[in-house]
Amino acid sequence: MINLIARFIRKYARSFLGIEISYAKYCPRLSESKVFKHYLKDHTKIGMIFDVGANVGQSALEFAKSFPKASIHSFEPFGANFRALRHNTRHTSSIRCHQIALSDHNGSIEVLVDNVANSEWNSITEKRQEEMETSTDVSKETVVLSRGDSLCNTLGITEIDILKIDTEGHDLDVIKGFDGIFKKGDISSVIVEVGFLKDQTHGKFQEINSYLTGAGMQLAGFYETCYFESGKCEYANALYLLPAKP
Fold it and tell me: What structural domains does the chain harbor?
């Protein structure tokens, strides 16, 4: 019961001890595939999708259903979630699962992992790891890190139509790992979770926006925007599109 209470506080309270206790009140669910079908003029030609921070396969299965001609690479570094991802997608041949954390460098790191099944709390960010240290229901795992452009070179992938990123705060590092491909203009669209103002658990919108617009992408809109009960905007999914090549 203590752990359940702790998880409730951890999930819904961003700060306490007299500062503010609040939670995301309004956060409508909208599948990424619907967003892309609305914005991409010829979505039938989508051939390569990267699902970074795949959890247990929710987005990957949506993508597979909506874009049956696409190859989907799903990345989930944490053991229990990865096993669930592989199990849930085992009947979908277009989905290839990788137990790797995409980042801005290659290597490995030992991290604390939430033991709750299908946890969306896991992250390799320093902030989230510090928070994990206060929990008694965690274990240690060694996570493999890879730059996105290095992995694409290994896999023989030169272009990505959809890059979906949801890594609980590690998002900018993931983006920087695709630097070589961004410079070539070979990533057509990105949907990434971003945080605003004092939010500490998601990638900072200002930094992510600066990088992606600097790479020639345009901000198309926000989706699944989550608000505090006080009305403050906490985080959202930001969609970026690369203008069509002449």
Answer: 24-241 (3.40.50.150)
